[in-house]
Design goal:
Layout (H helix, E strand, L loop, with lengths): L3 H11 L7 H5 L11 H13 L2 E2 H7 L4 H13 L3 E4 L3 E2 L2 E2 L3 E4 L5 E7 L3 E8 L4 E8 L6 H18 L7 E8 L3 E2 L4 E2 L13 H8 L4 E6 H12 L8 E6 L3 E7 L2 E2 L30 H5 L1 H13 L4 H9 L6 H9 L3 H25 L3 E5 L7 H14 L2 H4 L3 E4 L6 H14 L11
Parallel strand pairs: 6-9, 9-12, 13-16, 16-17
Antiparallel strand pairs: 1-5, 2-5, 3-4, 6-7, 7-8, 10-11, 13-14, 14-15
Helix pairs in contact: 4-5, 6-7, 8-16, 10-11, 10-12, 10-13, 12-13, 13-14
Length: 435
């Protein structure tokens, strides 16, 4: 029991905001959270995105006064979240003292569970990856096996690199299916038998009791990786599009992941692009994913190759034991194969059509294209760009950049590290520290 005010605050906390999942409120007793204020979080975000900052920089990039910045810096120094770096001399005067995140505050792991692999990384508190590892793993083997594999790999990575598991404060996990973020579970994932509502967080915490565990959809996680350390560094409104065996988008709105009311915002793979197109696994015809994801690109190319339109692709198909991958189509296009070039150009147009709709609707600053199919190269990117420019309003495209991911295969791991860090730098609720 508590005072009336405490009871009211407790009640308010149960009326969760979309940014703060229910289990996080329930998890206030969890270790290693850094309770900070809104303005302190804003400064930490800037330092996470841009690295070192001087007091003057922080005044310039925020709406806060110098006095306010000074008190925030003092508080963050006291909590050992940031450290001050010695002022350095340079010709022309004295450079002012800078501040950066305290990398020694702890360790954070990023786990990117894909359909056929698990990627892991361990970073310090500046977000810098110290160790990186990848291993084949099929999500179809179910959560007990895959989470067990991921956790024992993490244990091994810590041990082999002389890193203490007690210092592992956070673990971010990206999974390839729809996630109920407030519960930290997958909901009816199409390619993942046994994962529906499986308690991922609790399972991982049995291995690492001192770690805060956060779970989100893989594409949301990648989008986060892009704004903290990738092609969208510091961008507030961004769309990350993953084109691989499926197609999905992660939306960053005002610097935060936008999940929508049920957590499935950005599921653009099932937007119809061709009424008479091939059947999609969702039961509809002509979905973007069924027309332009990796398997569809390979399939369309193979049909053409068998009709005699591409000797190169037919040769690759026979050489690979009667299979053709989207990557082969990229290779053939680089050799100037007309069919491969046409398939890639056409795929870029379908993707561009959908993105043009998103640009008109959402007006992002940057669209980052990632996933395996981005290996198809600049031909795909230029086809997407041309279509978007043609079909979007001039104002929406004036400052728009459409680029490939800069962190590529690391986007999931880096994003998962940042997902966990986002949680560990959470704002305290209702104890008077909020400003
Ligand atoms: Zn579909």
């Amino acid at each position: 029991m508590g005072t009336a005010r405490e009871l009211l605050q407790k009640k308010l906390r149960t009326l969760h905001s979309p940014e703060m999942p229910i289990w996080l409120y329930q998890a206030e007793s969890l270790p290693n959270r850094n309770f900070i204020t809104d303005s302190e979080k804003e400064l930490i975000d800037l330092v996470r995105k841009y690295g070192e900052f001087s007091k003057a920089d922080l005044v310039t990039y925020t709406d806060y006064s110098r006095t306010k910045i000074t008190s925030c810096i003092d508080s963050l120094l006291n909590k050992k979240i940031i450290i001050g770096n010695n002022a350095t001399e340079y010709t022309g005067g004295r450079r002012s003292k800078t501040f950066s995140l305290n990398g020694d505050l702890g360790l954070v792991a990023g786990v990117d569970i894909g359909a056929t692999s698990v990627d892991l990384g361990i970073a310090d508190f500046t977000g810098k990856l110290l160790v990186r590892y990848s291993e084949p793993a099929s999500v179809r083997n179910g959560p007990i096996k895959i989470l067990g594999q991921a956790c024992s790999l993490l244990e091994k990575m810590l041990k082999e690199n002389n890193l203490s598991s007690e210092k592992l404060n956070g673990i971010g996990i990206g999974v390839p299916g729809p996630v109920d973020f407030s519960a930290g579970t997958l909901v009816s994932p199409p390619i993942m038998p046994g994962w529906d509502r499986y308690p991922i967080i609790q399972t991982v915490q049995q291995w690492f009791p001192s770690a805060n565990v956060v779970v989100d959809n893989d594409v949301n996680v990648m989008a986060l990786g892009e704004i903290y350390q990738g092609a969208g560094k510091g961008v507030d409104n961004l769309i990350f599009v993953k084109i691989g065996t499926g197609i999905g988008a992660g939306i960053i709105c005002e610097g935060k992941i936008y999940r929508g009311s049920s957590g499935c915002a950005g599921d653009i793979g099932h937007i119809e692009v061709n009424k008479s197109g091939p059947l999609c696994h969702c039961g509809n015809k002509g979905c973007l994913e069924a027309v332009t994801a990796g398997p569809a690109i390979a399939e369309r190319s193979l049909i053409g190759a068998k009709e005699g339109k591409s000797p190169i692709l037919l040769r690759l198909y026979e050489k690979n034991g009667n299979t053709l991958r989207a990557g082969d189509v990229g290779d053939a296009a680089r050799e100037g194969d007309a069919l491969a070039v046409e398939v890639i150009r056409e795929s870029g147009q379908f993707i561009g059509d959908v993105l043009a709709g998103l640009v008109n609707f959402y007006n992002p600053r940057v669209i980052v294209i990632g996933g395996g199919v981005s290996n198809l190269g600049n031909l795909l990117l230029s086809s997407i760009r041309q279509t978007v420019l043609k079909r979007s309003t001039p104002l929406a495209t004036r400052n728009l950049h459409i680029v490939f991911s800069e962190i590529g295969p690391d986007a999931g791991v880096i994003g998962a590290v940042n997902l966990a860090m986002d949680y560990m730098f959470t704002i305290t609720s209702g104890n008077g520290e909020r400003d």
